């Protein structure tokens, strides 16, 4: 018998390849064993994806530090974790557009808007839906750069900070999507409020991550937060201005749309 993955010769009685560790498949593919394989890989408690999420919530340093230091078999690697997040984000946006389109419709939130304001709102929402994944991807190197500056005296370089945020921002996105869909299913009116609360959670969670990862005391963490806030807001203003310029370049909105109508 030959392993179908690494082509290694195997004894007939074994169930896993002693070379690559792959499971030996003896039966033809059926709907039953197809769903069993999916359940084994993505639903059971022991699979890498769930273990990565659980450990990132409880002991994030085990996932992040392990990968950076070369132990890369226990958890999903950061690129794959981010890719899974982007894939699920696509499904999430589809569900929001199809079933909860009015929730993020600014026209329903604010009454008596001008035609120009409605046009601007429509363009903003279109860009959020179309380029949300790209925006999320660009945020990570931006956050990593700030993190390198704030934690200049710690052991991680810029690439390693990117790995850190690939994990943490993907986790935040996955948690946000799960909670948002639950809230939307129960009561749509709480969606915006819950979204704001989740951003507070993201800040607290990253404080928790850095505290455990860099073994900071409460005093050291507080000093780092004070250092982080002004850098973040200066960078945020710069990115917002750049985003506004790109918005006017690539959308059909012009400055005339902001002018009051007679």
In short:
With 262 residues, the protein is mainly alpha-helical.
Structural features, described:
The protein is mainly alpha-helical. It folds into 2 domains: 1-31; 78-258, no CATH class. Helix content is 68%, strand content 0%. The chain is built from 9 helices and no strands.
How are the SSEs placed, and which strands pair?
Blueprint: H1 31-42, H2 48-58, H3 60-68, H4 78-99, H5 106-109, H6 115-150, H7 158-186, H8 191-213, H9 218-250
Shape type: globular
Structural category is: mainly alpha
Query: How many strands, what sense, and barrel or not for the largest sheet?
Result: none
Oligomer: single chain
The Rg value, from CA coordinates, equals 23 Å
**Please, how many domains?**
2
Helix content class: 55-70%
Kindly state the number of beta strands: 0
Whole-Å distance between the termini?
82 Å
Are there runs of 5+ residues with pLDDT below 50, and where? none
Proportion of residues in extended strands: under 5%
- Overall mean pLDDT stands at 81
SSE string, helices as H and strands as E: HHHHHHHHH
Total of DSSP H or I helical runs spanning 4+ residues: 9
